[in-house]
Amino acid sequence: MRRSAIVLIVTSLLALTSVRADAADREHQQIMAEIRMLQEQSQQLQLALSTLSDALKGLNTKIETQSETARRNAADQKLLVDNVADDVRVVREKVDDSAVRLNSLSQEVDALRQSVAARATAPPSQQGLTPIPITSPEGETPNPETDPAAPPYPETPTEPETTPDPETTETPSSETTPDTPITIEPAEETAEEPASTAIPPGASPSRMFDSAFADYASGQWTLAIAGFDSFLRTFPKSDLADNAQFLIGEAYSMDEKLTEAVDSYDKVIADYPDGDKVPDSLYKKGLALSLLDEPDRARDAFETVIEEHPESEAATLARQVLDGMNRRARQ
């Protein structure tokens, strides 16, 4: 009985041991299978990480390329903006210069138009013109008393006796009697008198001014200056005196004699402080001083016209020129 029991126990133990061994073997196989799955997943994860790393490298390269392109474009844009700013500044300066020239030309055209209108409306006697008598076919002057068609002009005056010009008077020949007196003193005095101071008969302020302005309008600066000087000496109290002095400065400016132009503008300011040419004289003085490379004096002239005549057109132009000077000073 004991032997059978022992055999039974041993058999049972062997059976249990075999069962446990089979269970352990299955568990080991399952663990190995899970390990292989983890290894495969790890390999897939490494492959994905490698792919992602390559993608990131490519993205970084693109970002660097785009950044470099953006930097170059920004530099090009800055250069373009600077060039445009320079072009705008140059155009603005040219516009300012054109405005100055247009203003000067407008003043000259207005003065010329007024002169032409005054001449067109004035009667011949005020224009300093001598009526031309109308002659008949036979060469005789018609008499208004006997000929109804004769014009109502006065009779031709008898020519006054004139002193012979020493340049045209012939030297007395041997046939001249010694009793004939020859007087040359009055002729010499007349010859020594400057032509610019001689006042033609019937001369008027407007006629002398228009004659000088005609020389100015035709670009004959020296003749225009001489004509306006003669006008000022002859009619110093005329209403056109400040205009004449101002146009002397303009003629000097056009003739590129800027120092003389500044002096002429100063005379307008000093001699005619209540005249309407003071603002223009201050402004033109500033322009002439700028061309003479005297910016401080030019700035003073521009600031003076802005301060003393703020509503004038010259003040508006002076502000534009000062703005240009300030922009150039900041650059």
Span between N and C termini? 126 Å
User: Average pLDDT across residues?
Assistant: 75
Cα-atom Rg, whole angstroms?
A: 54 Å
Strand residue content = under 5%
* Helix percentage range: 55-70%
Uncertain segments are 121-199
Quaternary structure of the protein: single chain
Please tell me about this protein's structure:
By secondary structure, the protein is mainly alpha-helical. Among the domains are: 1-86; 205-331, Tetratricopeptide repeat domain (Serine Threonine Protein Phosphatase 5, Tetratricopeptide repeat, Alpha Horseshoe), CATH 1.25.40. The chain is 69% helix and 0% strand. It has helices at 2-121, 185-192, 205-217, 221-234, 241-254, 258-271, 278-291, 295-308, 313-330. Helix 7 (278-291) runs parallel beside helix 9. The chain is rod-shaped, with a radius of gyration of 54 Å. The protein starts with a helix and ends with a helix. Residues 121-199 have low confidence and may be disordered.
Keywords:
rod-shaped; 0% strand; Serine Threonine Protein Phosphatase 5, Tetratricopeptide repeat; 331 residues; mainly alpha
List the helices and strands and how they pair.
Layout: H1 2-121, H2 185-192, H3 205-217, H4 221-234, H5 241-254, H6 258-271, H7 278-291, H8 295-308, H9 313-330
Helix pairs in contact: 1-9, 3-4, 4-5, 5-6, 5-7, 6-7, 7-8, 7-9, 8-9
